[in-house]
Recover the amino acids of this structure.
């Protein structure tokens, strides 16, 4: 039986997933492969590199650094999360990423980004954590309007959450039979299905098919949540979601709230640990 895991995005809400992953690593709960979307991969890559606590540590350390995430970064570079600082300075010098362990770990990691011209999902396996892998991670986390499109492997890409927010069907298509799905919103949450903001239409008018996908995002996301509920009833999916809403914004900078959502991920997973073990056994 191939064991898999899906990590939803949500920018700083991804610290919930970081708490989940740290408890899994603390307790030796392994999967054969997993897929992360947006923050699900930029934070979740530390599961493959086996770096417990790293995600929380560098976020608390740098969240108020304008090079990390700020309006200044957006104005100066076109990216609200500074590409150079987040994807090179931090992993290479300031809080080193364990590239060697990442590359040697047999657990397979995938991500998804959205093709700017077709609006469709593009999936990629990340194998060594090198420059190309980092660009795919950055692409998966590049939110339209507050990020530039990422050019990698011949694609022009944006946030994977636009086209496949919770890629359970893709992972199952690869043969993963039992899948832990980590959400960053409480159970029962549903996304607004209203029209796009007119300013967003103007800002992204260069990519009409991407805009069309963005318009459908709420409906598709809610349909995926219903699909997950059905898969959980069938016994092929186990969902871990925040047990309460901490009202953490996507670009939250309150360190107490960030630490709290991480700790909630830890406590929720600890409470479900035996259920997770049984599910995978």
């Amino acid at each position: 039986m191939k064991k898999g895991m899906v990590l939803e995005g949500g920018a700083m809400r991804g610290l919930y997933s970081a708490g989940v992953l740290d408890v899994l690593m603390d307790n030796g709960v392994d999967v054969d492969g997993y897929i992360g979307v947006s923050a699900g991969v930029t934070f979740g890559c530390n599961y493959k590199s086996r770096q417990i606590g790293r995600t929380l540590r560098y976020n608390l350390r740098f969240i108020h650094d304008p090079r990390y995430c700020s309006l200044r970064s957006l104005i100066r570079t076109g990216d609200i999360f500074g590409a150079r600082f987040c994807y090179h300075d931090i992993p290479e010098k300031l809080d080193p990423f364990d590239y060697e362990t990442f590359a040697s770990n047999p657990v397979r990691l995938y991500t998804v980004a959205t093709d700017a011209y077709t609006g469709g999902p593009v999936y990629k396996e990340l194998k060594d954590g090198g420059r190309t892998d980092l660009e795919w991670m950055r692409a998966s986390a590049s939110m339209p309007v507050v990020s530039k499109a990422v050019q990698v492997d011949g694609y022009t890409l944006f946030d994977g959450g636009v086209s496949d927010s919770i890629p359970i069907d893709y992972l199952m298509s690869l043969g993963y039979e039992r899948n832990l799905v980590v959400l960053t919103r409480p159970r029962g949450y549903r996304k607004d299905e209203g029209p796009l903001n007119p300013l967003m239409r103007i800002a992204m008018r260069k990519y009409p098919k991407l805009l069309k996908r963005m318009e459908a995002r709420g409906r598709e996301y809610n349909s995926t949540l219903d699909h997950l509920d059905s898969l959980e009833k069938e016994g092929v999916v186990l969902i871990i979601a925040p047990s309460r809403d901490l009202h953490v914004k996507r670009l939250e900078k309150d360190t107490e709230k960030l630490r709290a959502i991480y700790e909630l991920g830890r406590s929720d997973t600890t409470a479900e640990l035996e259920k997770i073990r049984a599910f995978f056994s």
Notes: The chain has a mean pLDDT of 96.
